[in-house]
Amino acid sequence: MNDRVVALVPCYREAARIGDVVRRVRPHVDAVVVIDDGSPDQTANEARQAGAIVLPHAVNRGKGAAIQTGMQYAIEKGYDLMIFLDGDGQHNPEEVPRFLEARRASQAGIVVGNRMGDVKKMPLLRKWTNQFTSWVLSRLAGQPIADSQCGYRLLHRDVVPDIRIETSNFDTESEMLIQAGRRGHKIVSVPVQTIYEGQEKQSKIRPGRDTVRFFKLVWRNRRR
């Protein structure tokens, strides 16, 4: 029996890009679900017109909360595999088959995109940050993770019951890896393209605030 695959796209204020992302990912999955995190623009309408199912948040709750909404929907609807990608164009939808093939070959619970094989276009600070956080999270998860900050990833439904998300922002993606790794789920990586053109000025990551959240997450999990 073939696995049922859903693409989950958390996004906020991505009306200019979300339609293109949805149209390009649709050929590779059974359904595309956009979690609109309280966008004040036309993100939801653009996603629907492109063929996506839209799960709206009434207010902006953070990327982690959008991820949780998407996972809950996927489980309720009986999907086996969840492909997470961003709605801002930083992830190449044509690379979805790489994740599916890596899952078939490894039977891993999580397949994480790895941008670190080609860092020529990656801003230097982000490169250093990714290397450091990946080293820390690899130790906490108990297995190597080449690019822990890449939001482009595949998750098997069997992993979901073993993760208890306490965060609601960008640190949720790190928390998922720590908990899944500690509960024995295999995590593998697959090379993906690095796309940063036109994105850096619009990054939703706030270095000060999100760095504090990361270290709080690390401290909690070290104590456990």
| Percent helix range | 25-40%
CATH structural architecture: Alpha-Beta Complex
> How many structural domains are formed by the residues?
1
| Beta content | 15-25%
For the record, what CATH class applies?
Alpha Beta
- Rg (CA only): 16 Å
Main β sheet profile: 7 strands, mixed
Instruction: Name the CATH superfamily classification.
Output: Spore Coat Polysaccharide Biosynthesis Protein SpsA, Chain A
Distance between the termini: 39 Å
The beta-strand count equals 7
Strand line-up of the largest beta sheet: 3-2-1-4-6-5-7
Instruction: Please mark out the parts with pLDDT under 50 across 5 or more consecutive residues, or reply none.
Output: 199-203
- How would you describe the shape? globular
Q: The CATH topology is what? A: Spore Coat Polysaccharide Biosynthesis Protein SpsA, Chain A
State the helix count: 7
Which class best fits the helix and strand makeup?
alpha/beta
Q: What's the order of the H and E elements?
A: EHEHEHEHEHEHEH
Average pLDDT: 89
Q: What labels would you give this structure?
A:
alpha/beta, Spore Coat Polysaccharide Biosynthesis Protein SpsA, Chain A, 224 residues, single chain
Textual characterization of the structure:
With about 220 residues, the protein is of the alpha/beta class. It has a single domain, classed as Spore Coat Polysaccharide Biosynthesis Protein SpsA, Chain A. About 40% of the residues lie in helices and about 15% in strands. It contains seven helices and seven strands. The protein has helices spanning about 20-25, 45-50, 65-75, 95-105, 125-140, 170-180, 205-224; strands spanning about 5-10, 30-35, 55, 80-85, 110-115, 155, 185-190. Strands 3-2-1-4-6-5-7 form a seven-stranded mixed beta sheet, sandwiched between helices. Helix 5 (about 125-140) packs parallel to helix 6 (about 170-180) and helix 6 packs parallel to helix 7 (about 205-224). It starts with a strand and ends with a helix. The model is unreliable at about 200-205 (pLDDT under 50).
